[in-house]
Amino acid sequence: MIQNPLYILTVLCGLIFISEWLTKNTFLKHLSGPLLVIILGALLANLGLIPSASNASPVYDSIFNYVAPASIFYLLLGVNLKELKKAGLPMLLAFVLGAAGTTLGVLVSLNLIDYQEVFGKNYAAIAGMMTGTYTGGSANFNAVALHYDVVREGAIYTGIVVADNIVTALWMLVTLSLPALMARWKPHKSLQMNLRGDIDQYTEREHVGPLRLGLMLFIGLTAMLLSNQLAELSGVPSVLVLTTIALVLAQLKVIQQIPGAKLLGMFAVYLFLVVVGAFCELTALVQVGEHAVSILLFTVVIVLVHGLFLILMGLVLRTDWCVIAIASQANIGGASTALALAKSFKRNDLLLPAILAGSLGTGLGTYLGFLVAGLV
């Protein structure tokens, strides 16, 4: 039953409903929906009620391959390119500083463990993998791992993947809380874009009939299909192509007048995040035996150094803490989680910078990963 695709989708959709209901009707309203859905996904996965990282379902692969990009596309349809000049440079600078913090974190963490004992001959490749994944997401991790054939290293590879999933999920919780915590200690001026509309208009109040919903789904699926084809021909990451298509369409009034994009986009984000939570599997680290603690320490230190470095730069530059948090999430989790974070902060003005930072990480992370692997 647990591997039944229909069962999995039923539970995932149920968790989205439960998280939204709890954040609207109970004391958990102080938590955000994205935060709670990650927690619920992790809880059920570790209780064995839905598949986790070690026995992942093809349903999860489909969500990562199709639903996550769809969330990017639909949410970007509501973005005005005119806002890029207002928030683009601060986000880009924060993202670059975050990537520098990741590289520093990899070098520091290597010196805290006996990396040759833990990782053997693969230590340089693993350093590159972690640099790549914490610059722009898991696509970079897999690219470096496949090149160095680390994927055949069984337990070590599994342990690193699990540690990565755990830390990525936990860091999402940290970045969700970061702006509120830092604002109490060192408040910085927020970048106010004076955007039109209300962030909550993706809810049931958005009138979507079968005609318009069918049209919006057709547009989204066509854009994803086209982006994949163009990516194969050009070698450009498909997420960058999809982003470009979405931004071009978003400037057309005829597209802006079709309702449903915000609703589809936010639901897709929730579906993606609940799977991120499901991949936060604690028991799988047992497979690497005595090295489990070292692998987890290695991963945690990378992200902590990244975070502390970026926070320090934020203090020096007096950057909007929401920008710092989103840029960090673009590094650690990639475009989809950065986008989810911007939505959680109710910052429509930062949607475009978030997705562009994540896309930049997808494009540059692999190169930086190979560079660090070569240098190490």
Proportion of residues in helical segments = over 70%
Largest sheet, in brief, is:
none
Q: In what range is the share of β-strand residues?
A: under 5%
Overall 3D form:
globular
Explain what you see.
The protein is an all-alpha fold and 376 residues long. It has one domain (65-375). It has 16 helices and no strands. It has helices at residues 5-25, 33-46, 58-76, 84-110, 115-119, 123-136, 138-147, 154-185, 210-234, 238-250, 253-256, 261-278, 292-317, 321-332, 335-344, 351-375. α12 (261-278) crosses α15. The radius of gyration is 20 Å and the shape is globular. The model is unreliable at 193-204 (pLDDT under 50).
Can you tag this structure with a few keywords?
mainly alpha, single chain, 73% helix, 376 residues, 16 helices, transmembrane, 0% strand, Beta-carotene 15,15'-monooxygenase, transmembrane helix, membrane, DUF819
Concise summary:
It holds the Pfam family DUF819. The chain is an all-alpha fold and 376 residues long.
Topology:
Blueprint: H1 5-25, H2 33-46, H3 58-76, H4 84-110, H5 115-119, H6 123-136, H7 138-147, H8 154-185, H9 210-234, H10 238-250, H11 253-256, H12 261-278, H13 292-317, H14 321-332, H15 335-344, H16 351-375
